[in-house]
Amino acid sequence: GAGVSQSxxxxxxxxxxxxxxxxxxxxxxxxxxxxxQRLGQxxxxxxxxxGNSAPDKSGLPSDRxxxxxxxxxxxxxxxxxxxxxxxxxYLCASSLLSTADxxxxxxxxxxxxx
Amino acid sequence: QKEVEQNSGPLSVPEGAIASLNxxxxxxxxxxxxxxxxxxxxxxxxxxxxxxxxxxxDGRFTAQLNKASQYVSLLIRDSQPSDSxxxxxxxxxxxxxxxxxxxxxxxxxxx
Lengths: 114, 111
Known about the structure:
- The complex is a heterodimer.
- By secondary structure, chain A is mainly β.
- Chain A contains no helices and eleven strands.
- In chain A, a hairpin with a 5-residue loop joins strand 7 (65-69) and strand 8.
- Chain B is globular and about 40 Å long.
- Chains A and B meet through strand 5 and strand 10 of A and strand 4, strand 5 and strand 9 of B.
């Protein structure tokens, strides 16, 4: 595709529900990143994929967060038993290579937990 | 703890002036540096990347890198109201995948 796409663009859920966020990277990009951005804050690294393996999950805030990636394609970020503090914009980025290469961001998913 | 520091602003400049945005980083092993622009409610978009000491120009934008001082800057010439946004600086240590992002500087260009 022309760019990184994410869905849904907005998600409103009730506390305690599970949510699944999707990211479609740029075709051919081997690396994929998930970030969280709370209102008025900077980017918080969550997880990185090289192909379908995740060498670094250190940014995942708790075991309620998980992510997977199919080959060098779609990735899903799942948040179980959502809490109000999970409310944020979740951004996905992809890059052609993994090391110090330009990351291109998707439009983000705005998650609101009531 | 590897860090990238930016003044949060807002930095206010009049239309047509030069806006100067600054960034310092703590990891001397950083080799690649990026400036992203983020409009309110939108995702970051790449403005410039810079890898070598010195200046790199692209249109109205000039990125400057000084590895000895661990300092990166972005100059925006002939600033326009449409340049009003938050500018994020990122550093990538050599051989790693992980960007370290600053918290951003909010720029306001006054018409």
